[in-house]
Every structure is written in C-alpha cells, then in structure tokens.
Amino acid sequence: MRRLPMRESVIRRTTIRCAREGAVNLSQGFPDDDTSPEMKQFAREAIEESCHQYTDPWGAPALRRAIARKLARFNGLSVDPDRQIVVTCGATEGMMIAMEALVERGAALLTFAPMYENYVLQSIAAGLELRVLELREPDFSFTRAELERMWTPRLQAVLLSNPCNPTGKVFTREELQTLVDFACAHDLLVFADETYEYLVWEPHRHLSIATLPGAAERTVTVTSTGKTYSVTGWRVGYVVADEPLTNELRKMHDFHTVTAPHPFQIAIARAMDELPESYYARQRDSFAERKRILTTALAAAGLTYCDPGGAYFLWCGYDALAAEDDDLFAERLLTEAKVAGVAGSVFYPRTAQNPRRLRFTFSKTRPTIEEAARRLLALRR
Ligand SMILES: Cc1ncc(COP(=O)(O)O)c(C=O)c1O
C-alpha cells in the first residue's frame, strides 16, 4: 500500500475534541452563528428552482457571470467568465487542483511560514517539494534577496495567502510587486489565496496580485465564498486564471468533484449580484468588534498578539504565562482552561525550533468569545 506522509488536520481534529471536552472552540476559523437571513432566502429559492442536477463542470453559467462582475467591481480584474473561471468545492479544491494541474510532480513550490496548515498536506498530496521562507514578526515582510535565496531550478510556483491565515498580515503593494517581479524573473506561477479578501481592516486595503504589472498571465487566484458569506458548509469557491491555465485546471477539477453543489452556486450568484456594499461593511464591523473583545481579553490574561490587518485570526505569544512548547501549552489550555487555540507549530512544515505561539480565531459569536475570555482570565489567576 502506498503511504504518503499525510496527517489528519490538527485544526479540524481540535474542533472535534472541543465538543468532547466542553471547550470553547477558538481553533477552527468558521463562524458559530448562523448565516444571514438573506443568504438563507437565496438558498431556499435556489432549492425551489429546478437546479438539482449536475451543472456545467466549470461552474453554473449564472455564477461565473456573477463572479466576473464581482471581480471587475471589487478586485479590478477584467475576466472572461467562459474562459477564465472554474467554480470549485471551496478554496480547498481550488488550491489542490492548482498544485496538481499546474506544477509537475517532484517540482518545488515556495510559500511562507507561518502558513495555513492545508498547504503542507496539499503539497504532499500533489507530490511537490514545499520550500518555505519563514517570515518574522512583527511585520512578516520579505525582500527580493530572501526570495532569491529560496530559488532552485526545480521551483515552478509561489503561493501566498493574502490576507494571511494565520497571522492576519495584509501584504502591501510593494511586497506583492516584489513577489511578482521574482516570479517573472524565474518564470514562476503565482498561487494567490484570497479567501479573506473582504475581511480587511482600515488602514489596510486588499489588493489582488493578479492586477499588478506582469502578474495577470501567471497568477492563479483562489477564493472561497464560505468566509465572506458565513456559509463554509456550502462548499463553493472558485479559481481565476488566464485561459491556458484555466484549461488545465478544468481538466483536473472535472475528475475530482465534477461540480460544486448546484443550488448553492445559484444562491452565491444571487448574493454576489444583490447584496449591497453595506452587507460587507456590516460583516467587517461585526468581526472588528469580536476582535476588540478577544484582544482585550487576551491582553488581560497576559498574552500578546500581532495586530492583524485582515482575516479573523490572532497570532499570540504567551511568554508571561508558560515556558512550555506551544503544542503542550495548547493542550493544557484545552484540557484545563477549556479553551481551544491552535499551537503555532502547526503552521510550520517542520518545527526544529518551537515558535511558542498560538492562533486564536475571533470568527465566533460575542457570547462565545466572552466565555473564552472569562476562562482565559481564570487561567491567569
Ligand atoms: C487561507 C485559507 N485558504 C483556504 C481555506 C479553505 O476554504 P474553503 O472552506 O473554501 O475550502 C481556508 C479555510 O480556513 C483558509 O483559511
């Protein structure tokens, strides 16, 4: 039997353990409140319509057109909905098919740590060598010289999560252009995970890499709709790329999942076309408030954190509370304080030196966050 060095997702396993331990779950990044009444209504109406069979494997035409309009409006990207979009089962499938379809097995993919846990496992599944540039607090920036040091003749693509899970870093135009220039110099693809594109706090701004000079023909933008509309269970995401790249992505997608759930595609198309700007602003304000509550509680409990520019995670230090490695501290937090975060080491492919960090999400409701805050304060006492 073939055995890949894969492991279960630590984050998803923690969510299951939370339920067993009666712990407050600040580990997995999904909202624990309901989606909005508008989203439910779109879904109900889509289910009433006759859209219960396979749709076009590239994505329901109504959704691809809505995505193209949204890309023009929000991202400043002009895209042909028939030639440059594939609707996928979430950003998870989007990134997976990008790795499998566009990078040769045995070739290298460069990304940055701390990183979203899935990239490590997805690159193993795709048979790629993952090269990792570790970024440093507090600004998590990088230089062209650092990128050049990571280059090998086997390198075929670079992957950036922006806004970044787990640090909340929102990359600047200069940083993004540095990455694009590096990619152009070495003829690399750029995989841009923009799952949290709508969750960006002032004064930061979300900038899609694909809009930068030199980027369009080599960038594969991978996006989820689950976070933006609080519907992570609907499993609708999409990938945007130039036509030759999209043709390869489509072949891989077709044989993985054929289509994302058809009625939910129709509902997401309605959301993109019909929800006003105030919907997104309300969402951002609501998460900003949750961030405020959690950061206040963490500071009172003696933890430090990097102020995020986007996404809904806090990258935290705990030096004032404990001297142990982060996996042990996260375990103690879960079993003793009954609060679950994620050990920072989960966001590195290998941990020669333990980062001694925790990631907490503030995607949960105010009562959940307040309960976590009470438990963290009790831990300090
Ligand atoms: C950076 C990042 N990319 C992708 C995903 C997966 O998104 P989806 O649920 O659309 O597959 C997540 C989910 O947490 C994420 O944080």
Radius of gyration of CA atoms, rounded to a whole number: 20 Å
First and last CA, distance: 51 Å
Strand content: 5-15%
Number of helices: 12
Short description:
By secondary structure, the protein is an alpha/beta fold. The protein has helices at 10-21, 37-48, 61-75, 90-102, 117-125, 144-150, 173-185, 243-256, 262-274, 277-300, 326-337, 366-380; strands at 24-25, 85-88, 108-113, 129-134, 155-161, 189-193, 219-224, 237-240, 304-306, 313-317, 339-340, 342-343, 357-361. The protein is globular.
What does this structure look like?
With 381 residues, the protein is of the alpha/beta class. The protein folds into two domains: 10-30 and 278-380, Alpha-Beta Complex (Aspartate Aminotransferase, domain 1); 37-274, Type I PLP-dependent aspartate aminotransferase-like (Major domain) (Aspartate Aminotransferase, domain 2). The protein has twelve helices and 13 strands. The protein has helices at 10-21, 37-48, 61-75, 90-102, 117-125, 144-150, 173-185, 243-256, 262-274, 277-300, 326-337, 366-380; strands spanning 24-25, 85-88, 108-113, 129-134, 155-161, 189-193, 219-224, 237-240, 304-306, 313-317, 339-340, 342-343, 357-361. The mean pLDDT is 94.
